[in-house]
Amino acid sequence: MGEKLGYDTIDLRRVNKASVELVKQVAASNLFGGASLRISGCVGPRGDGYRIDQRLDTDAAQAYHFEQIAALADAGVDYVTATTMTTSKEAIGIARAAASLAIPCVISFTVETDGTLPSGQGLGEAISQVDAETDGAPAWFMINCAHPSHFAEQSDVWQLWTSRIGGLRANASCKSHAELDQATELDAGDPHDLAKQYAEICGRLPNIRVLGGCCGTDHRHVEAIANQIIRNG
User: Fold this and answer.
1) Phi and psi of 93, rounded to 5°?
2) What is the pLDDT of residues 101-112, one digit of tens each?
3) 228 burial via Cβ count (<10 Å: 0-12, 13-18, 19+)
């Protein structure tokens, strides 16, 4: 992507460093009451996050994402997060690239309305495959860009892979990726209902540490989620 913007490797590192420095300045300000903050450098899939328009094998994915992850690591992020991952192979390549640079990584998959990745692979199978083929390199896994109703049933029964899920960044809308891609208006859903569904899922996932929002969410959703989780202890 850097090449499409006219950036070479030097430019890529320069703009990433400038971005991280800005975030560090904000984190060091008094806006957060002295809270300890960690900075994540985010990377996305090479192609579309809603559908698979490119299928990278693990080696190609590792090579493609290496420079961006290296730039973020050099800029001083605490870890990298790969969001809206559509295939396990690209996720494996990213995890291997991060491991080769000794920077922690988080892999965040997206799922369709039936709970499977856009590749058709089951969520649990994808998480287990990434762990198996990277020696458990990801610090944890996350789910993003999907409504809780799309994946809630998969967390009903405790399994080893569910213990690896450490974050949720769900959509406000329960629409499919295809429907969202064609939407002309933002679907903000119901912030309080979304928060209740978060709380129910978190009750079944023992290692959740990051909560946020994705498509259609704003401060209302994040506030409702925080309040709901606090009430539930």
Assistant:
1) -60, -40
2) 999 999 999 999
3) buried
